[in-house]
Amino acid sequence: MGFEMRVYGWIAMTILVIFLYPCLCLDKTNRRSCNIYEGSWVYDESYPLYDSLKCPHIRGEFNCLKYGRVDKQYLKYRWQPSNCNLPRFDGKSFLKKFKGKQIMFIGDSLSLNQWQSLICLLHSAVPQATIIQQGGNHPIKNYTFQDYGVSIILFHSNFLVDIEVKKIGRVLKLDSIKHGNLWKNMDVLVFNTWLWWYRKQLSDYIQIGNKIVKDMDRTKAYKIGLTTWANWVNTEVDTNRTKVLFQGISPMHYNGTQWQKPGVTNCAKETTPINRPSSSLRLPPASYVLQSMLQKVKKPIQLFNITALSELRKDGHPSFHNIFHGIDCTHWCVGGVPVPDTWNELLYASIKN
Question: Is-contact 163 142, C-beta < 8 A?
């Protein structure tokens, strides 16, 4: 009898844990399931999460306050998921949780954008901590918080697949990933690519197998490149050891019709978010391409789906508040601006369990 009661007790406890497990991750506000990527931006006086002027690690492209941005309202918005509360980022908890771990961002300058935001978030939590900086040149930058043994690494790769310089010029090889051995043994991998696929500045030719062409439809090329990446994950990455995320498409704001201002051609005078729920937005076509291609990955990965929530932040870009004083509505201000910082709050919520 006593043995049976103990068995029933363990069964009851197991069922309880199963039902409560989602609540251990996020504070649900009702009984509906929580999608942390669906919600809206709310004004919050307790933001920003840190003072950018005290972070020595921001590049001039993203340092909006240093380069003259005077409106501060854009610093005060917090992402609020529809059916749960997103935990506020805690840098010390992050460093303790990932003690001895390596987190690598792999992608273009938007990966650099998020990487710099995470460095500043952690630096603000432990400003006296020793940070060992390695690299500095392409393609790798590594900041290690020595007291915790946590490495935050950036691997710059515009396409994820390879570009090689040959006699004929720069060749984008859609079926080749030679740097994978440097990536696959990380504890967390956050991939990103799209920004350069529709541009032609970085490659003179495109190669698939032995076939080299001058150019091809860039969406088709993107699909082939993502398929190569998916095959690489399937064959090379031990997802029991390494958590893999792929960042959604980061939106740009050069077209005022996105926020009911036809004729506006940039984000220069925008100081507030688009006042709509993220679920009401149409996503860029590349987002649907990405989501369909990620289904080719047989191993467990996560879509780090920041597209819709970032689409609302027309006010979050550097505009001309950057070291070059050129209009930039592609990247995001670093230094309290909720877009890259919120990306890292969402990243932490996604990977800590």
Answer: no
